[in-house]
């Protein structure tokens, strides 16, 4: 593809008219071009998949996995290496086959329904404390900085056994590693190295003095072949869990609350019937209009999608957010229905790489919403919804802040 060809292709992710509104191109691609060509922030071309059944099929196919630095895949970021999917972390963590399944099995033990239920009281207590602190400082307030960000950071830090007090450093390193256009290659390399040294220090400390946390358990555990994990794999896993465990959930808490307050009849509906919290959380996940870049898959053999054959070597960008608004899969898909059930959305992906932490994310979203409804029933946006500002230049979507009053 020549440079002029790339310049003619639409840039993905698409720009949106407002932080809570989906880009018009999602519907256009689903209807007219379900397997379309786009150009990423890097300038590389990729194939965009937008229909529900097609996205689910590509994500669920065990032959295809996340691009690795060894693949000649399209780069998501505009840096030389291509961003987090091409990082040392992505190289060290096994991406497919028995090794990947074993890695997921060992991590997955920490995200069972039983463990999540045991965490709920502590999450609720922390949410109440953060809300009390926010209220004490007076309205208006930034709900993202006051609640949506510190809560999931505290939870994942507690699970990993790393100090919550370092959360601003985690936030900076995460932003740099998730950058598409915001940071340089040198800044990426520095953040990755600093994060790696930080996590390496904690792993050494856990070896000396184990505690009841994920890192200590992984150090002590052995895999199915009776082998212990290397320090490199332990560090990459810790970094991956810290990034995923706070960045996406922090953004989703703020987006969920914003969506519910943008049309305050939704908030009133939940106040009248708090039993809708669980289905409301799922609908917020489904209708997220600002979800980020989606999931990349590297196609290693010819593969047919919606009547189009993707040749081997194609990078497929699966837009779960576009798929979640597909009328073929969801009745009145553009409408927010807080009681929608079933709701088989793809916000957490599908197949062998579906989000490991989704039980934790759901728990945090549900508990936060329950506590907010109980403690701040008069909560409302402090700016018009169309003035909310979205996070720019990262692989994940979010709001820069969420101004509220009560």
Summarize the SSE layout with pairings:
Layout: H1 3-8, H2 24-32, E1 35-39, E2 45-49, H3 52-60, H4 88-92, H5 97-108, H6 113-137, E3 141-142, H7 143-148, H8 150-160, H9 167-177, H10 185-208, H11 214-220, H12 231-262, H13 264-272, H14 277-286, E4 295-298, E5 303-305, E6 308-310, E7 315-318, H15 320-323, H16 358-375, E8 380-381, E9 403-405
Parallel strand pairs: 2-7
Antiparallel strand pairs: 1-2, 3-9, 4-7, 5-6, 8-9
Helix pairs in contact: 6-8, 6-16, 8-12, 9-10, 9-12, 10-12, 12-13, 12-16, 14-16
How would you describe this structure in keywords?
single chain, 406 residues, alpha+beta, Cytochrome p450, 4-stranded mixed beta sheet, 3-stranded antiparallel beta sheet, 16 helices, globular
């Amino acid at each position: 593809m020549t440079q002029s060809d790339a310049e003619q292709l639409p840039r993905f992710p698409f720009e949106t008219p407002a932080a809570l509104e989906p880009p018009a191109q999602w519907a256009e691609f689903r209807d007219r071009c379900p397997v379309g060509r786009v150009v990423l922030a890097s300038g590389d071309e990729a194939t965009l998949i937008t229909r529900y059944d097609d996205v689910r099929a590509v994500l669920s196919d065990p032959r295809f996995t996340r691009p690795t630095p060894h693949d000649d895949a399209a780069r998501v970021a505009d840096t030389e290496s291509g961003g987090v999917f091409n990082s040392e972390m992505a190289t060290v963590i096994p991406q497919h086959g028995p090794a990947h399944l074993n890695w997921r099995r060992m991590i997955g033990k920490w995200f069972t329904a039983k463990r999540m239920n045991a965490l709920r009281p502590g999450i609720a207590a922390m949410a109440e404390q953060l809300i009390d602190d926010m209220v004490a400082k007076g309205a208006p307030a930034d709900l993202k900085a006051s609640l949506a960000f510190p809560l999931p950071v505290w939870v994942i830090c507690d699970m990993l056994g790393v100090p919550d007090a370092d959360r601003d450093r985690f936030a900076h390193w995460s932003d740099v590693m998730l950058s598409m256009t915001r940071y340089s290659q040198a800044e990426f390399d520095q953040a990755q190295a600093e994060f790696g040294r930080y996590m390496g220090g904690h792993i050494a400390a856990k070896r000396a003095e184990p505690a009841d946390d994920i890192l200590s358990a992984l150090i002590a555990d052995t895999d199915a072949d009776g082998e212990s994990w290397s320090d490199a794999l332990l560090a990459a896993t810790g970094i991956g869990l810290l990034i995923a465990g706070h960045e996406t959930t922090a953004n989703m808490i703020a987006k969920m609350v914003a969506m519910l307050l943008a049309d305050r009849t939704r908030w009133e509906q939940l106040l009248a019937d708090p039993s809708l919290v669980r289905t409301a959380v799922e609908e917020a996940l489904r209708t997220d209009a600002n979800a980020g870049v989606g999931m990349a898959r590297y196609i290693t053999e010819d593969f047919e999608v919606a009547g189009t054959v993707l040749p081997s070597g194609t990078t497929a960008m699966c837009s779960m957010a576009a798929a979640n608004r597909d009328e073929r899969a969801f009745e009145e898909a553009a409408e927010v229905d807080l009681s929608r059930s079933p709701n088989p959305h793809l916000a957490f992906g599908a197949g062998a790489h579906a989000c490991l932490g989704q039980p934790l994310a759901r728990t945090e979203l549900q508990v936060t919403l329950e506590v907010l409804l109980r403690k701040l029933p008069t909560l409302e946006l402090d700016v018009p919804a169309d003035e909310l500002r979205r996070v720019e230049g990262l692989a994940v979507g979010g709001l820069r802040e969420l101004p509220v009053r009560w």
